[in-house]
Each structure stands twice: as structure tokens, then as C-alpha cells.
Amino acid sequence: MPAEDADDMAKDFTQLVDDLAYAKTFYPSSKVTQFINAEASKIYLSIYKNRKEESNRLVTFWKYDLPLTVHKHHVTILFSFIVFIIFFSIGFFVSRQDESVASTLLPPGYIDVTQEYIDKKNPFGIYESGNPLLSWIWIMINNIIVALRSFASGILCGIPAINDLVKFGLQVGAFDEIFAARGFGTQFFLVVFVHGTLEITAYIITGAAGIVMGKSFLFPGTIKRLSALKQGAKDGVKLMIGLLPVFMLAAFFEGLFTRLYNDISWLTTAIVSLSVLFVIWYFIIYPITLSKKLALQLNEEDV
């Protein structure tokens, strides 16, 4: 049971560290050792993130909670990424064989409008329409609503979340094919990925969050199914809260900066590059290094 006060927590932690040292010595490969290590890690992290210098809860969330949650579910996020890539490829190559398929995947009339802009020698002119500020707000609200709905549907064993990932991959693949077939494949990535890098990443992790919730119910492990579902939902909510600023920033880029690809191409190219570096560092490298750092500190405490 969780400790009721700091003194009890300290006693629990000391006892767990003693047990962990013994278990690692005599039963290094035991599941019991893994369990004790996990329990000690929870208490250690609870103490670590509540130090005075980390009094800002938001800082703690972005610096520790979210990256550790991402690392905990790296395999599920990788699965979501693979699903997206597979169906992106299917959408691209099927549309290459028969472009009428793309018209069934994309909004009605989208291909015709895109073709009109291409004929005007401005293939990505669709991003230049509308008021930048209003476009940002509308895109942001729409993307967040779609993402939250996709995540919530994950409670149905995660199947709807996977289905949304499949549809999203097919749509992006078909969208890419429209431009690639007309000789604008490279420009597609340099323009669309001004906002697409963050947006696609956010949708992939949204799918993973839904799968995490569904998977926790289907495969509860050694704990009660309801408790596993609560933990899965909690982790999923953490991921979704962490993605809200990503969706906001992606919409901001789409509404205000993507349209500048003709006038300030160096700026849009820089945004794409920095976005890619951010995604790789914050969602892949930093969670791994943080987890290893905390594990090392815990082992030093054991000694």
C-alpha cells in the first residue's frame, strides 16, 4: 500500500533497497527482483521529483514524467510508427497505380483543387489561402479534437486507435503520391513537413496512447484487469497532455509558416530540420538517457 507520510515512505524505500540488494545478489534474473526494482524506482522517482528545486509541477512533468512515460511505452510507439509507415506505403503505391483511389481517401474535390494550383505553377498554394491566425486556431482545435477522440476510442481494446492509424497512413501516402506523380516529391517533404513533422509524430503517439489503454485491459499481467486499465488510461492521458502543445505548434506552423515556402524557403527548411531534431531527441534519445540515468542513480543508492 502507498505510504501515508514521508517517514513511512523512507522506511519503505530503505526496506526495498535492502531487499533489492539481496535479490540482485542471489536471484538476479528473478521476476521478483524486477518487481522490487520497479517498486523502489517508483518511490525514488516520487522523492526525486518532489525536491525543492523541482517545485514547478509543469517543469517536472516535461522534464521527467512525460519522457519516462514515453520510454515506458517505446515499443508501443514503435509499433504505431510501423503501422503508419506500412499503410503510408500502401496508400502511396496503390494511388500510384490508380489515382482514383486517392480521391476516396482524401476530402472530396481535394485532388481537383490541388491540380488547379499545380496548373498555376504554385502546387502548394492551398496553404496560402485563408487568414493565418484563423487558420492556426481552426487547425489546432480540429486536430486536437480528432486526436482526443482517437485516443478515447482506444478503450475498445485499442482496435479503433489502430484503425485510425491505418486511415491516417493511407491518407498521407495518397496525399504524397499526388505531388510525387507530378514531379513535386521532394518539395512535398520540404513544404508539408514544415508542420507535418510534428503533426504526424503527434498522431502516431496518439495512436500509441489509445493502444496502451486497450492493451492494458487485454493483457493486465499479474494485476487486476481494472487496475491495469486505470494505469494504462493514466499513462495514455499523460501522453495526450504532452501532445497538446505539439498539436498547437504544428497548427501554428501550418497556419503561419508553411505558406512562406516560396518567399522565405530558408526559414521553412530550418523549421523542418529543427522539428526533426526535436522529435528524435525528445521522444527517442532523451527518454532513454533519462531512464538510464535514474536507473544508475538507483543502483548507486543500492550500493
Structure, explained:
With 303 residues, this protein is an all-alpha fold. It folds into 2 domains: 71 residues, no CATH class; 218 residues, no CATH class. The protein is built from 11 helices and no strands. Helix 3 crosses helix 10. The model has no long low-confidence stretch (mean pLDDT 87).
Outline type? elongated
Low-pLDDT runs: none
- Terminal CA distance reads 26 Å
- Percent helix, as a range, is over 70%
Mean pLDDT: 87
How many separate helices? 11
Number of beta strands: 0
- Major sheet, described briefly? none
Number of domains: 2
Cα-atom radius of gyration: 23 Å
Amount of beta strand: under 5%
| H/E series | HHHHHHHHHHH
Category by helix and strand content? mainly alpha
Keywords, separated by commas or semicolons:
mainly alpha; 303 residues; 11 helices
Quick summary of this structure?
This protein is mostly helical and about 300 residues long. The chain has 11 helices and no strands.
